[in-house]
Amino acid sequence: MHLLRAIPNAGKYLEFCIEGPDYYPWQEGLFLGTPYVIEDGQATVTDAPGWEVEINPDWLDRTAYQVSSLA
């Protein structure tokens, strides 16, 4: 979202997933805090540095590392 905010003609629409843990259970607890707030159909993008998301280290500790390969 920060990149889109920096582009003067990026357009006014962005697809955003609003499904909850029943649809995407793997993402539950992924972020610390609430990185994206949608109010009245609009996302707020702050001036904070970075991508404005912080991955929860506990979530990472519970994941399994997997590598896919072309066969």
Could you characterize the architecture of this molecule?
The protein is low in regular secondary structure. It contains two helices and two strands, in the order αββα. The N and C termini lie far apart (35 Å).
What's the arrangement of secondary structure elements?
Layout: H1 2-6, E1 38-39, E2 42-43, H2 57-61
Antiparallel strand pairs: 1-2
Kindly summarize this structure in a few lines:
The protein is mostly loops and 71 residues long. Helices cover 14% and strands 6% of the residues.
* Contiguous runs where pLDDT drops below 50 for at least 5 residues: none
Question: Shape from CA axes?
Answer: extended
Structural class: little secondary structure
**Order of strands in the sheet with most strands:** 1-2
Report how far apart the termini are.
35 Å
Global Rg: 15 Å
Number of domains: 1
Supply the key terms:
little secondary structure, single chain, 6% strand, 71 residues
